Amino acid sequence: MKNRVINYNFDDIFPKFSQDDFIFPIDTYSLFLKGLSINPVNFYQTWSDDKRKFITDKYWKPNTKLDWKWSLSFPFFSFLEKYIDTLNNPIIIGFSGLPGSGKSTLGFWIDNVARELSIDIKVISLDDFYLPGQEMDIAMKGNPWNVPRGFPGSHSLDILNQSLDVFLKTGILNSPIFDKSLRDGKGDRSGWCVLKPKVLVLEGWFVGCEPVSDLIEIDAFSEDNSNITLSQDEKDYRILIQESLFKYSKIWKKFEKIWHLKSSDINNTILWKTQQEEEMIKLKGSGLKGNNLSDFIRMILTSIPQESLSFINSDATVEINQHRRISKLMTANHHF
Questions:
Q1: Which residues contact 260 (CB under 8 A, 6 or more apart)?
Q2: Residue ranges per structural domain of the chain
Q3: Which of 130, 174, 180, 219 is the most buried (most CB within 10 A)?
């Protein structure tokens, strides 16, 4: 009985949904859940429960689509929740996605739902480990995009390494807090917090991204196959960034698993990042705009090879299109 394979029918398990709510092939959905070792029947019952539904509904943004709920948020939360019952030691899960893809929105939802359900899960951002303002200005000086932060080399890696190592040993995380609205949008560290989750999610736009050995060859290929032409300054600086990524790769080795919120096209981040900064300006009165925003987007598109960002070695991949609709679902054990 233990090894019996059960084929679940989507329509039988999720009878209330219209297939128009999902633009990916529906028959891959149960395979995705199976790849995550999630029983679809129990999964549907859990997230259809009225008490849980009341909690989750409070933290959605207006007009959140069903595919975002049922194909990303619920599976990811269930995936994290399983570790609470099966592991005694704290763990770290990496979560990767381009700027504006929805990582922070998902993290906010997970944090609040976990708190209300009294489940020891917490999401933090790699961005919170940015260097303090003055150190950041020195580290970023002379970069070809003239951006104040963002790419590998702008984080306090010693503090990040130490904080994560202590967390894995003790379950206690000391994390800085970075406020991007400070210093007219350049950002600065604004304090510290102490967290004690059992499962920690670390999210960032190049989380899981590994250095490449054939950068010159990749650059030549990219110029022949994309509409982006790199300046010589960008090519030179990309070498420095690749050297930095070797240091970040030590961080990735601390992860139990990695999830990738993958963009169907890297250029989607142009729209996403613009929307994100517009929202920050509305909420906090400060954010990137004009040339500063254009420069930041250019940095995202060119500082790391697109091949590195698109093909992260993840355990689960959820691909989204320009409108953040989910178009593909994949796990390391199930490619479909």
A1: 95, 96, 97, 208, 312, 314, 316, 317, 318
A2: 10-331
A3: 130
Spacing of C-alpha 17 from chain mean position: 27
CA distance readout (Å), 174 to 152, 194, 254: 21, 5, 16
Q: Which two tokens stand for residue 333?
A: 């054990």
Distance CA 94, CA 332 (A): 15
Of the candidates 124, 104, 108, the residue with the CA atom closest to the CA atom of residue 116? 108
Q: Rounded to whole angstroms, how far apart are CA atoms 39 and 45?
A: 10
* 73 burial level (CB within 10 Å; 0-12, 13-18, 19+): buried
Token reading at 54: 């009341």
How many CB atoms neighbour CB 83 within 10 A?
18
Start-to-end Cα distance in the chain: 26
CA 241 to chain centre: 20
Torsion over CA: 276, 277, 282, 284 (sign)? positive
Residue with tokens 């200005």: 137
Looking at domain 10-331, its CATH superfamily turns out to be P-loop containing nucleotide triphosphate hydrolases (3.40.50.300)
At 82, list the tokens.
């399983």
Residue-wise pLDDT for 175-218, tens only, equals 999 988 788 778 889 999 999 999 999 999 999 999 987 776 66
DSSP string, 138-165: HHHTT-TT--SS-STTSB-HHHHHHHHH
Spatial separation of the C-alpha atoms in residues 322 and 108, rounded to whole Å: 21
Q: Are 260 and 312 in contact (CB under 8 A)?
A: yes
Sorted by sequence, the CB contacts under 8 Å of residue 167 that are 6+ apart come out as: 90, 92, 173, 200
Instruction: Report residues of the chain scoring pLDDT below 70.
Output: 1-19, 216-227, 333-336
* 22 in Cβ contact with 10 (< 8 Å): no
Q: How far apart are CA 174 and CA 273, in angstroms?
A: 29
What whole-number distance in Å separates Cα of residue 333 and Cα of residue 336? 10
